[in-house]
């Protein structure tokens, strides 16, 4: 059968990561097809947490206002030792919000997916095909042909690029023959979701940070008798996760009477409705190859993270935010496709850093020996007593290689700006895309000349920090880095800094070279 439809990008899988990928690609001007084997979003909650970086990404595509109303803003993760006292706190109580949003949000995935699908429907560059299964693909120098199964029978489509966002059992990954690195963590847990009419009952834990509300924290009970986690969902939704102990069967643990016995201490006298109880095996897995010629893996298709810091879905959003602006440059002919090799180069270290931290946490959470648990509690209190150990998002390192300058690669801040229309977030005032933030107007002419000379293709906008009423946040940020200017990427990571006010040429020339925009590479794009 001859493929009659042709696209710039086909996204396989319309879960949250795939839907976001299609939205951001479409807004970048790419003709995008998104496929899903189902017809409706999955009806039960799976992912429940995202952080400030993902809220900023949702802000960037204009859907954050739609989804924020259905989220519970929270204050981090509290780890409770075997004796009922705090051994570690990763949270933000009483702290500023340098990125504009709170650090932790909990949501109900069916609602979240519905919001994203409404946003998809508003994008003229997106075609959504439901009840359409990916079967196989073949690649050539010009693109990819995908074979599909539909209710009407077999079909084929043609695309320049493909992104597999089709989950942990990814058919795209299997088709490519990509193997997974097993990072040596696998534990069976029972996950219970319920609608609860009142606040949960919590024991009087010792050492809870002043001002912290247990109803607004993810609480990890590191009890050798039964490690468990209690998660604050949006609205009435609550989640429990219980480790299966040696000798316990999955069938036994999902029996309604057993589930009720496990959650009852938190619900004495409280009405609730059980939504589901199912078992999962928490894994640490990373694909060895994220790109195969014209096909990419993203989200759970590329990596699976133990859930102890709530970063699994966040990884997927970061994946497609990283990849989308690069694909847009390549498809439009402004960059050589070697730029796409920086996708795994940048994202793989981030994912592995978080998985390593989650596995480390999982190993101390899952301690079942009482003596070992007591020693763990003492050691962790000596390290973390009286202070936060940061946040889960702080575990993400700066980009160290790829489309980034040496010494840069951190996420850029997002202060609030006073405007005539009221207080607005930095991105809403300045726009997104490529931006050059300069210290003051004395650098304006030099900046525009350097942009015109080295990266005219990027449409890079110049932002004068001194002209924004931000209470000095941007000037402070630049000053702490001894910089007079910063180049900000579309995914909000800092490409590079300029420390020499007399030479803005150097970082902008380097930008052109790293994105393969220099003249020697022009004309060689596919």
What does this structure look like?
This protein is 29% helix and 27% strand. With 526 residues, it is an alpha+beta fold. The chain has two domains: 5-182 and 284-395, 3-Layer(bba) Sandwich (FAD/NAD(P)-binding domain), CATH 3.50.50; 416-514, Glutaredoxin (3-Layer(aba) Sandwich), CATH 3.40.30.120. Strands 1, 2, 8, 9, 10, 11, 17 and 18 form an eight-stranded mixed β-sheet that branches. An eight-stranded mixed β-sheet has the order 6-5-13-14-15-12-16-19, sandwiched between helices. Strands 23-22-24-25 form a four-stranded mixed β-sheet, with helices on one face. Helix 1 packs parallel to helix 4, helix 1 (16-27) runs parallel beside helix 8 (312-331) and helix 8 packs antiparallel against helix 9 (342-365).
**Helix count, per DSSP?**
14
Mean pLDDT, to the nearest integer, reads: 92
How many whole angstroms does the radius of gyration measure? 24 Å
Number of strands: 25
- Give the % helix: 25-40%
Strand count, sense and closure of the main sheet? 8 strands, mixed
Can you tell me the CATH architecture of the largest domain?
Answer: 3-Layer(bba) Sandwich
């Amino acid at each position: 059968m001859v493929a009659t439809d042709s696209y710039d990008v086909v996204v396989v899988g319309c879960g949250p990561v795939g839907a976001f990928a299609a939205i951001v690609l479409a807004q970048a001007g790419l003709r995008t097809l998104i496929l899903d084997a189902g017809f409706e979003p999955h009806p039960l909650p799976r992912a429940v947490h995202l952080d400030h970086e993902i809220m900023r990404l949702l802000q960037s595509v204009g859907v954050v206002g739609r989804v924020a109303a259905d989220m519970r803003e929270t204050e981090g993760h509290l780890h409770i030792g075997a004796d009922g006292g705090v051994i570690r706190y990763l949270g933000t109580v009483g702290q500023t919000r340098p990125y504009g949003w709170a650090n932790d949000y909990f949501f109900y995935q069916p609602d979240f997916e519905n919001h994203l699908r409404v946003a998809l429907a508003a994008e003229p560059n997106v075609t959504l095909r439901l009840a359409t299964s990916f079967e196989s693909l073949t690649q050539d120098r010009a693109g990819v042909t995908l074979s599909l199964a539909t209710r009407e029978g077999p079909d084929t489509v043609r695309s320049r690029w493909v992104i597999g966002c089709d989950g942990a059992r990814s058919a795209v990954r299997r088709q490519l023959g990509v193997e997974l690195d097993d990072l040596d963590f696998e534990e069976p847990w029972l996950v219970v979701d319920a609608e609860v009419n009142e606040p949960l009952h919590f024991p009087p834990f010792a050492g809870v940070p002043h001002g912290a509300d247990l109803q607004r924290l993810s609480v990890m009970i590191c009890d050798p008798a039964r490690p468990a986690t209690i998660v604050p969902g949006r609205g009435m939704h609550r989640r429990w996760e219980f480790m299966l102990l040696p000798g316990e069967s999955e069938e036994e643990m999902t029996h309604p009477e057993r589930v009720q016995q496990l959650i009852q201490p938190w619900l004495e006298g409280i009405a609730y409705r059980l939504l589901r109880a199912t078992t999962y095996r928490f894994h640490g897995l990373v694909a060895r190859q994220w790109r195969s010629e014209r096909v990419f893996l993203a989200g759970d298709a590329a990596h699976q993270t133990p859930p102890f810091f709530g970063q699994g879905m966040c990884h997927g959003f970061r994946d497609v935010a990283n990849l989308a602006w690069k694909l847009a440059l390549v498809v439009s002919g402004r960059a050589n496709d070697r730029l796409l090799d920086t996708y795994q180069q940048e994202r793989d270290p981030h994912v592995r850093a978080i998985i390593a931290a989650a596995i480390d946490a999982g190993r101390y959470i899952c301690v079942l020996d009482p003596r070992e648990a007591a020693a763990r509690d003492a050691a962790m209190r000596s390290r973390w007593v009286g202070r936060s150990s940061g946040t889960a998002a702080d575990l993400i390192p700066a980009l160290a290689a790829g489309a980034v300058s040496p010494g840069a690669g951190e996420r850029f801040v997002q202060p609030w700006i006073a405007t005539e229309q009221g207080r607005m977030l930095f991105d809403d005032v300045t726009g997104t895309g490529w931006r050059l933030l300069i210290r003051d107007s004395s650098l304006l002419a030099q900046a525009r000349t350097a942009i015109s000379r080295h990266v005219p293709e990027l449409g890079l906008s110049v932002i004068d920090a001194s002209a924004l009423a931000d209470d000095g946040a941007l000037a402070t940020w630049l000053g702490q880095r001894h910089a007079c200017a910063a180049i900000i990427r579309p995914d909000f990571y800092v490409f590079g800094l300029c420390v020499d006010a007399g030479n803005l040429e150097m970082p902008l020339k380097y930008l052109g070279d790293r994105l393969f925009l220099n003249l020697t590479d022009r004309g060689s794009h596919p």
